[in-house]
Amino acid sequence: MSDNQPHFKEVLGQISRLIAVTTTVLLLVIVLIFVGILATDHVQEWDNLYLNAPEVTLRQKLTLENAVEYQSDEIKYGYELITNTDQLIGMSVDDSSMRYTGNVLRCSSCHLQGGTQSYGIALVGVTGRFPQFRGRENKEGTLSERINGCMTRSMNGIPLPEDGDEMKAMLSYISWLDDFFGEDASSISPGLKPIELPNRAVDLVRGETLFNKQCTVCHQSNGLGVASSDNSAASYIYPPLWGKLSYNNGAGMHRVITAAQFIKFNMPFGITHESAVLSDEDAYDVAGYMNSHERPQRANLDLDFPDRKRKPMSTPYGPYADDFSIEQHKYGPYLPIAEYYKQAYQMTKKK
Ligand code: HEC
Ligand code: HEC
């Protein structure tokens, strides 16, 4: 028995060491699991944030970009033309025969995220809506004519040849967007989202204050945007809102109501229509302030909307089918104008 004593002690010692080691290992495992849970939780939280925040648009864009890679050359070219317009058919490209636009904007400066942003004048679902009746020309118009509408006004340029590679590529890309989204296409809201119009004229002073607070960090206080330094063909990181290099006075964005709807649900850049930061009144005043500045002038605008009563209320040039002043058409108040069209022509005007 006596020589068994040390052996027993040894066994006891080994057992306790074993217990100690096991406990340490277990503790380590528990700590690791805990850290793991915390980390995944954090990732999930981050992911949720990522999904709800403006970045969702970045993610959308990345998948769009990736998907485009696998498409035909024509679709790829269309995507490039819409998102890099200035680099390919801009006013300062090397090949002078390719200078179709007359400013530094890109189609995607307004048709955000390559035309995939809800209420950011999406190009998804557009193909099926054309040909359609167009009040500006008072006739049935095709999608290429509509694109050339933006070419000559929003882009202050010349029309693209209807059967040229550029027009064909743009049409292919726009039509492909419907395939890309498939059944989800209807979840991308078209056009612009209406706002409630204040029953007063634009307050330019208030507009300027808001502009300085919300917009100048990118578009600069002179509204002329920021050019990128690393490019021969002038490329802008932040596009100009007025001045020689912006949209002309015949563009849809030059109408206060259209601009207010765009700004409210798309600016400051990064927001979506679900995370708007400006109130309707803010957007209205900022839009008026933005459009109070000088910009390229388009000739023969008086020929627009041959049927004058179809002219949108905030079109800032005459002639009109009413007696309200140009000033009131440009800056409101719009409710009296809307009321007039209801009485005189039984027309409901919202823009
Ligand atoms: C300065 C902003 C701006 C730029 C730049 C611009 N557009 Fe537009 N575009 C608009 C506005 C505003 C509308 C009309 C939206 C509305 O009233 O719902 C529009 C409408 C359209 C439509 C019809 C959309 C629909 O829902 O029926 C097409 C197609 C289009 N643009 C294509 C283009 C293409 C292609 C380019 C580039 C060559 C371009 N646009 C550049 C502002 C712009
Ligand atoms: C964080 C930077 C940022 C801020 C702040 C910002 N914008 Fe923009 N804005 C952009 C960018 C970038 C684009 C072009 C989008 C693209 O190319 O994807 C743009 C496009 C526009 C356009 C259409 C293109 C053009 O040049 O006409 C308008 C109009 C506009 N912004 C108005 C505003 C107004 C008004 C505000 C303030 C309420 C504002 N933005 C605040 C970055 C910004």
Task: Describe the secondary-structure layout.
Blueprint: H1 4-52, H2 55-69, H3 73-83, H4 85-89, H5 107-110, H6 112-115, E1 132-134, E2 139-141, H7 143-152, H8 165-181, H9 204-214, H10 216-219, E3 226-227, E4 236-238, H11 256-266, H12 280-290, H13 326-331, H14 335-345
Helix pairs in contact: 3-8, 9-12, 11-12
Bound molecules: heme C (2 copies).
One heme C is lined by residues 105-106, 108-110, 112, 214-215, 217-219, 238-241, 246-247, 253, 262-263, 267-270, 286, 290.
Provide a descriptive summary of the structure in words.
- This protein is mainly alpha-helical and 351 residues long.
- It folds into two domains: 55-187, Orthogonal Bundle (Cytochrome Bc1 Complex, Chain D, domain 2), CATH 1.10.760.10; 204-345, Cytochrome Bc1 Complex, Chain D, domain 2.
- 48% of the residues lie in helices and 3% in strands.
- It contains 14 helices and four strands.
- It has helices at residues 4-52, 55-69, 73-83, 85-89, 107-110, 112-115, 143-152, 165-181, 204-214, 216-219, 256-266, 280-290, 326-331, 335-345; strands spanning 132-134, 139-141, 226-227, 236-238.
- The strands form two sheets. The protein has a two-stranded antiparallel ribbon. A two-stranded antiparallel sheet has the order 3-4.
- The longest helix has 49 residues, at 4-52.
- The chain is elongated and about 115 Å long.
- The chain starts with a helix and ends in a 6-residue tail after the last helix.
- Residues 41-53 have low confidence and may be disordered.
- Bound molecules: heme C (2 copies).
- One heme C (HEC) binds at residues 82, 85, 105, 107, 109-111, 121, 123, 126, 129, 143, 146-147, 150-151, 154-155, 170, 190-192, 247, 251-253, 258.
- The site of one heme C (HEC) has 26 residues, from helix 5, helix 10, helix 11 and helix 12.
